[in-house]
Amino acid sequence: MTIVDTTTAPLHWRPMTAIDLAAVNAIAAAVHVDYPEDAAVFAERLALHPQGCHVLAERDDAGIIGYIISHPWRLEEPPALNALLRAIPAPASTYYIHDIALLPQARGSGATEAVLTTLLHHAETIADNVSLVAVGGTVPFWRRHKFASRDSTALARKLASYGEGVSYMVRPLVGGDAASAGSVID
């Protein structure tokens, strides 16, 4: 995946490196207080699929104020919270957005839309859909980006580690629309 690295812009996405993991863990701890994950989870995702891991940096890399972590995976089998993957499935049946987090100063900047556009192009080379677990009241945000909620007993069991108020969501990438990705429930 190629994301334009324009260090003259106030904010820019660039590939994540192992050096960035301390900042990524700090952002995760600040933004996702109710969904803690060990540092090993982020390090493993970076090692398994670096093409899906990016950080949002301020001009001249003065600071990291956001990140996105994503990877190929299995449709309707979201990884449990704070769990290692061990390997990426081949072939993958979905492209999974594990996490996106922005510090308050980055919100409203258009950074999420920018990285999603690039991420969706990358995902099209791997699967015909993108999936995620929407947490913290983000379902309306993801709906605006053509994701639709899916609901089943099996998914409910898989989402148990995330707690209450979460939704598994899918967006088709090839043809169709969000409604054809599954039954909308929210």
Plain-language structure description:
Helix content is 25%, strand content 24%. It is built from five helices and seven strands.
Q: Could you list the spans in which at least 5 consecutive residues all have pLDDT below 50?
A: 1-8, 175-186
- Helix percentage range: 25-40%
Question: What is the CA-atom radius of gyration, in angstroms?
Answer: 16 Å
- Average pLDDT, all residues: 86
Count of individual helical segments = 5
Strand content: 15-25%
Q: Quick one: how many beta strands?
A: 7
Biggest beta sheet attributes: 7 strands, mixed
- Give the N-to-C terminal Cα separation: 32 Å
Q: What oligomeric state is this?
A: single chain
SSE pattern: EHHEEEHEHEHE
Helix/strand/pairing class, anyone? alpha+beta
Strand order of the largest sheet: 1-2-3-4-5-7-6
Which of globular, elongated, flat, extended, rod-shaped describes the shape? globular
